[in-house]
Amino acid sequence: MPPATHRVRACATHELPPGTVRRLRTMPPVAVFNVAGRLYAIDDVCSHAYAILSEGHFDGTSLECPMHMSRFDVRNGEPLCPPATEPLRTHQVEVTGNEIVVHVEVGNG
């Protein structure tokens, strides 16, 4: 059986220009990124230790954890350097009209 998801409106497309991130206060917390016009969504809590990743430095395709400086690829959730070794869960993103909608997977990834 596929994982349960719920659709969450992130924002209007003009509110997330390229090079920006938007935090969704969902459970689990999710961050949505615009990478050169392509949209990606990952869990917004570091897989190494509890830290809100969207508060870290977003540069191109990578996001740095503000707590221990691990970096993650926002396109696939993969860790790019220690201390994080576990990937982040990704979520499907769609554009409906001028709205960005994220299919947030619920439960323990």
TrEMBL record:
* UniProt superkingdom: Bacteria
Q: Which keywords has UniProt assigned to this entry?
A: 2Fe-2S, Dioxygenase, Iron, Iron-sulfur, Metal-binding, Oxidoreductase
InterPro entries of this UniProt entry? Rieske_2Fe-2S, Rieske_2Fe-2S_sf
Q: Name one Pfam family in it.
A: Rieske
Named from the GO MF annotations, one term is: oxidoreductase activity, acting on paired donors, with incorporation or reduction of molecular oxygen
Domain Rieske residue range list? 8-102
Q: Which residues cross the membrane?
A: none
Q: Which NCBIfam families match?
A: PRK09965.1
- What protein name applies here? 3-phenylpropionate/trans-cinnamate dioxygenase ferredoxin subunit
Q: What is the lineage of its organism?
A: Bacteria, Bacillati, Actinomycetota, Actinomycetes, Pseudonocardiales
